[in-house]
Amino acid sequence: MPETAFQVFVGALLANNFVLAMFLGLCPFLGVSNRLDTAFPMGLATTFVMLVASLCAYGLNVLLGAFHLEFLRLIAYIVIIASAVQLVEMVLKKYSPALFRALGIYLALITTNCAVLGVALFQTAREYDFVQSVAFSVGGGAGFTLALVLMASVRERLQLSDVPSLAQGTALALMLAGILSLAFMGFAGLGS
Amino acid sequence: MSAVAAPGNRDEFLEGLWRQNPVFVMVLGMCPALAVTVSAVNGLSMGLATTFVLVASCGLVSTMRRLVPREVRIATYIVIIATFVTAVDYAIQAISLALYDALGAFIQLIVVNCIILGRAEAHASRNPPVAAMVNAAGMGAGFTLGLLLLGAVREILGAGTLFGFSLFGPGFQPWVIMLLPPGGFFVLGGWLLAFAWWARRRQRPEAAGHA
After folding, report:
1. Which residues of B touch A177 (CB under 8 A)?
2. What is the pLDDT of residues B174-202, one digit of tens each?
3. B176 touches chain A (CB under 8 A)
4. Interface size between A and B, measured as CB pairs under 8 A
5. In chain A, where are the structural domains located?
6. What distance in Å separates residue A91's CA from the closest CA in chain B?
7. What's the ipTM?
8. Is the CB of residue A12 less than 8 Å from the CB of residue A18?
9. Comparing C-alpha atoms, which of B94, B136, B87 is closest to residue B108?
10. Which residues 81-140 on chain B approach chain A with CB closer than 8 angstroms?
């Protein structure tokens, strides 16, 4: 029985959360999750790029399939994602220069965010149809945003607490991510 | 680190393997590092595949460093990397289908491994091919070592085996959580803690004035 679009959405949002269950997009997850007011826009920007990438990848698959050029898939995906990121960058620079500066290098790094390429690759591997692909990318993006916001909230609190100096920084962030991931395992089976 | 004036090849190699280890020191390329390391074999093969892509693309980038205009260099690097990844993808599929299924989409995700693009930009685009490839090989070896350590711990704790051989006999209760996603975060966090503790212990005697 094929999954409905809603099942795909909930699965990507919670049960198979991109960051906490599939380990996609960890670099921005660890890098931009220091403050809540940058984490949320970063999540939204990534979600948008994921949606664009997913739509383009769907069209591209049809095109490459028609010409039997499947071996070019990976290269084509990457080029599409890079262009989509460029687009987001230009729009943000024009309408919200402050946010553009706050996100800094991480904005350009959406190109190498595995979550974005992951959407394109997984939807191909699982042979999702058009509606499922859209649900998958929006759910995945929302899940990424959720994980980023949760992590940022916890880390903002942690700045005020007394942490052993040995554990500060990445080690602590990874332990936190582990606990969050443990919590998200409670969603296992949801939407499938 | 690329500014170091012509150090020996051995130093260059060790730099990536140990002092600038991509997994434990720079904490780069985390996605494949955590996703595929449910066993030592998976970690090792992922590390080797990444090393091949790293060395080959750094060699090519370095060879072409005077030909590529600055404005389009990132796009060029990405296309070069994607080409080698496609080759590795098909090669693994041909060699071992079981391994291919275990690693899944993460072979193709080597393209977006920050280590590779980082090396191409920071080192290979400024150094001659041999130096670039030695440096890349060191980084690749360091990455492989990191994945192997992660995979080994997770396999021992989570399944009671190492490279598929049973270690503790039939009475062992596997700690399954170590094979699941949270285990990846915990084991890497644990390794980072262990390395930080070790580095501090080495520093303290020196600071106190006796070895």
Report:
1. 185
2. 888 888 888 889 999 999 888 888 888 88
3. no
4. 106
5. 5-160+167-187
6. 20
7. 0.83
8. yes
9. B87
10. 82-83, 85-86, 89-90, 104-105, 108-109, 111-114, 117
